[in-house]
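Request: How about a record?
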Amino acid sequence: MALVTTTEMFKKAYDGGYAIGAFNVNNMEIVQGITEAAGELNSPVILQVSKGARAYANHTYLVKLVEAAVAENPDIPIALHLDHGDSFELCKSCIDGGFTSVMIDASSKPFEENIALTKQVVEYAHAHGAVVEAELGTLAGVEDEVVVEAGKESYTRPEEVEEFVDRTGCDSLAIAIGTSHGAYKFTADQCTRNEKGILVPPPLRFDVLKGCIDKLPGFPIVLHGSSSVPQEFVKMINENGGQMPDAIGIPEDQLREAAKLAVCKINIDSDIRLAMTAVMRQYFNEHPDHFDPRQYLKPARQAVKDMVAHKITNVLGSNGKA
C-alpha cells in the first residue's frame, strides 16, 4: 500500500466514532515505534512532520523513513502530513516532495487573511492529489516555532466555521476547545488540585465542539495539543535528574469522548518525547558505562511503541480499523 490521503480514513473514523492518531516524527526510532504499534493493532495512522522536524532531520530523510515504514507495514493506511505549515511555500514544498496532507496554520491572522491563504494552499493541494487541514482559533503553549502565551489563546467561534470551510474548501478543521501545545499546557493558577495534590486541568469546551458539529455536520474536526503528559514519565524524568515540575496534559477520558464525536484526528507529540526521555534518563543512570546509541535507543523505541499502542487502544479507539 502506498501513502494515502486522510480522506477515507477520516470518513470511516467519523462514521465509526473513533479518531486517527497523528504522531510527530523526528527520527528513525520514532517512525519505527509508531508504525510497529499501528501495524500490530491494525490501525490507520498519520505520521506528521513539523517545520522544525524538517530543519532537524532533512525533508528527504524523513520521507524515505516514512516510505520504509509503508513498505514494512503494507496492510495499514499511512498518511504523511505537514504539521503547522506557516506559508504557501512550505506547504507547496511538502506536497511536491511527497506529502499526502498538509496543514496551513494561518489561525493567528485576521479571518479574511486566514481564508485567503488557506484557499491558496487548498487549490494547489487539490490540484496535486493532496488534502488540507486548516485552523480556526489559537492554542496556547509551545510546539517548535509555534508559541502562544497563556492568556493569548482564543477559542474557535462556531458561528465562523461554516463560512470558513465553504470559502476555503479545506478538508478538515483544527479547532481550539481548551487543548494546548507542549508538556506545560496549563499554569498552576488555571488548575485545581485533587486530594493527592496533583494538578487537575480545566475541562475541554465540549460546548464549542458541539457548536462546530452543528454548523458542520459530517465534517472532520482536528484537535491539536492533545498529549496527556503521563505523570509516571514526568516522575521518572524527575527521579533521574530532570526538572519538570507541574507538567500537565489533557485527561485521556476527555479525548476519548471527543473521538466519539466529530474529532477524527488527534495530535500527539509531547507524550512520545516524555516516554523516550524518561526511559533514556533512567537507562543512563542504570548503565553509566554504556555509550553505544543502540543500547539506549532500543528501549526508547519500545517506549514509543508502547505509548502509541496505549493511545490507539484506549484513547483513539482506532485498533482494528485499518
Notes: The mean pLDDT is 93. The longest helix spans residues 293-316.
